[in-house]
């Protein structure tokens, strides 16, 4: 069976988002011209953070003000945005994520706090997670900083987290 290489080129007369695609068939004995490039790429894990995760967050048990462990659903988008819903409060956290190394990711997010319907301040979440070799689970640590409505820092809390990747379950 012949190998097929698809090459995309920007059409100079077209807007940048339009692409021209050319396909060229190669005999079975030859390699596509970009095959060597595939071997030259740095090795990366076959997954990234993008997807849906069920997390367990465990605040530091030695902190008397820390809540008990709670669950969160994290949706990490391919564009590096993320959002969570959590079981400890009726709030949503929104943020950004980046890859730090092959299987380690940094997350920063923000959450508004309300008490009796009144804005009470902002939580800033920072986390560092590592996807385990199975690609289906992760572990990490986090820090949450709280700022009052004027933006004045009020305090921090730390903890650990673990999670599993969720996927489609066929009926």
Describe the structure.
The protein has 171 residues and is mainly beta. The two termini are 36 Å apart. 4% of the residues lie in helices and 58% in strands. The protein has one helix at residues 35-40, and strands spanning 3-10, 19-26, 51-59, 70-76, 81-86, 92-101, 104-115, 118-131, 137-147, 153-166. The protein has two domains: 3-40, no CATH class; 51-166, Quinohemoprotein amine dehydrogenase alpha subunit, domain 2 (Lipocalin, Beta Barrel), CATH 2.40.128.
Summarize the structure.
The chain is mainly beta and 171 residues long. It has one helix at 35-40, and strands at 3-10, 19-26, 51-59, 70-76, 81-86, 92-101, 104-115, 118-131, 137-147, 153-166.
Relevant terms:
Lipocalin, 2 domains, two-stranded antiparallel ribbon, globular, disordered N terminus
């Amino acid at each position: 069976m012949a190998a097929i290489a698809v090459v995309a080129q920007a059409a100079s007369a077209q807007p940048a988002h339009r692409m021209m695609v050319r396909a060229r068939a190669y005999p079975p004995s030859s390699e596509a011209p970009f095959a060597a490039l595939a071997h030259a790429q740095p090795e990366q894990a076959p997954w990234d953070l993008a997807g849906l995760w069920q997390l367990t967050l465990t605040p530091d048990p030695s902190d008397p003000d820390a809540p008990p462990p709670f669950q969160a659903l994290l949706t990490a988008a391919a564009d590096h945005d993320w959002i969570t819903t959590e079981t400890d409060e009726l709030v949503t956290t929104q943020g950004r994520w980046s890859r730090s190394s092959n299987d380690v990711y940094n997350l920063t997010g923000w959450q508004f706090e309300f008490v009796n319907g009144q804005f009470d301040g902002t939580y800033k979440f920072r986390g560092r997670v590592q996807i385990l070799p199975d690609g289906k689970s992760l572990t990490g640590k986090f820090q949450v900083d709280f700022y009052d409505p004027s933006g004045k820092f009020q305090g921090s809390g730390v903890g650990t987290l673990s999670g599993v990747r969720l996927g489609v379950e066929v009926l």
